[in-house]
């Protein structure tokens, strides 16, 4: 298993240094233009420059996460999606050329979403949460309403378009479940909200490039049997990437919590990944914002990560997993 960290953009800062100090060598990056100030990574030069920065800073750019450019036309099936898919193909080709082999993607047009970003957790640390009734009072998306069937059709079209290109370029595409796992959100149907839905998504292509970001916290929120899911998808070689965090509550009313403070037996989970032979990257997912730091980048401030990564590393060592 490869302990990794999600970086936003390509500007080295204290987080990069802290990651090196924690012994993290594998970087997962979001390189969208609004974060890098450079053209999107369907442009080879732009992508290659970012990769060089990571290498120079001592990291292997293992993969990408999130939308690397505006994906709403693809996700919602709107005019212009053919042009966007060409961009996506170029990005996949560039990934192959640069040896960046993992792409964590999602099919949420409005991204991961919370109704509350300032819930007081242990010792006053701040976490995010979601309440379905509150979300139903929020405005519809600026693109209007979309049914779950429409989103499934769009997802199927997307998979047909991208999977052959991903496979030809040696890129593993790791589908992230919908967070929150409930539908609709802002009037847009969400489709990847249960273990059964993830199976349906996987059934759309038998390409070896088609697999999962095993976002443990989201599957816990769904109230699924997470151990069984690790067994099944791990044995089938479909777990490409793992996100570790914990939550308290139900799909329609939950809050996040510290890695050691939720209902999940984290040791059992890490051992389960090991037992199914998972050898890919895993990362600490959303963490509480802690004393003395802003909550500006909800879930991704650094003190919670120092705690979370240390905790995960300890569990890995406890399971006999070496971290270089
Ligand atoms: O919602 C989740 O559980 C995620 O891990 C989503 C990530 O925060 C997102 O991909 C970061 O861009």
From TrEMBL:
Protein name: mannonate dehydratase
Known EC number: 4.2.1.8
Family indicated by similarity: Belongs to the mannonate dehydratase family.
Taxonomic source organism: Gelidibacter algens
MF term (GO), any: mannonate dehydratase activity
Catalysed reaction equations from the record: D-mannonate = 2-dehydro-3-deoxy-D-gluconate + H2O
Record-linked InterPro entries: Man_deHydtase, Xyl_isomerase-like_sf
Pathway as given in its UniProt record: Carbohydrate metabolism; pentose and glucuronate interconversion
Role of this protein: Catalyzes the dehydration of D-mannonate.
Gene Ontology terms describing biological process: D-glucuronate catabolic process
Keyword set, alphabetical order: Iron, Lyase, Manganese
Keyword Translocase: no
Cofactor: Mn(2+); Fe(2+)
């Amino acid at each position: 298993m490869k302990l990794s960290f999600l970086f936003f953009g390509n500007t080295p800062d204290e987080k990069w240094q802290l990651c090196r100090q924690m012994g993290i060598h594998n970087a997962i990056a979001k390189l969208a233009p609004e974060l890098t100030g450079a053209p999107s990574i369907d442009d080879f030069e732009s992508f290659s420059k970012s990769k060089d920065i990571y290498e120079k800073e001592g990291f292997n750019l293992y993969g990408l996460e999130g939308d690397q450019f505006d994906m709403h036309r693809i996700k919602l099936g709107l005019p212009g999606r053919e042009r966007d898919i060409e961009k996506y193909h170029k990005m996949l080709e560039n990934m192959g050329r640069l040896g960046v082999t993992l792409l964590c993607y999602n099919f949420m047009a409005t991204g991961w979403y919370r109704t509350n970003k300032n819930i007081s957790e242990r010792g006053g640390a701040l976490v995010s949460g979601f309440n379905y009734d509150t979300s139903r009072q929020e405005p519809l998306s600026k693109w209007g309403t979309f049914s779950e069937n429409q989103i499934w059709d769009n997802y199927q079209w997307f998979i047909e378009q991208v999977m052959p290109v991903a496979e030809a370029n040696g890129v593993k595409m790791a589908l992230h479940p919908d967070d929150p796992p409930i539908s609709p959100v802002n009037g847009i149907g969400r489709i990847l909200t249960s273990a059964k839905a993830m199976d349906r998504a996987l059934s759309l292509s038998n390409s070896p490039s088609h697999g999962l970001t095993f976002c443990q916290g989201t599957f816990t929120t769904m109230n699924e049997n997470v151990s069984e899911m690790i067994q099944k998808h791990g044995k089938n070689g479909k777990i490409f990437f793992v996100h570790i965090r914990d939550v308290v509550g139900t799909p329609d009313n939950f809050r996040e919590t510290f890695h050691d403070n939720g209902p999940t037996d984290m040791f059992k989970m890490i051992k389960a990944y090991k037992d199914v032979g998972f050898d890919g990257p895993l990362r600490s997912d959303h963490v509480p914002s802690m004393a003395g730091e802003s909550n500006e980048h909800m879930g991704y401030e650094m003190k919670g990560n120092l705690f979370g990564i240390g905790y995960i590393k300890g569990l890995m060592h406890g399971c006999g997993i070496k971290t270089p």
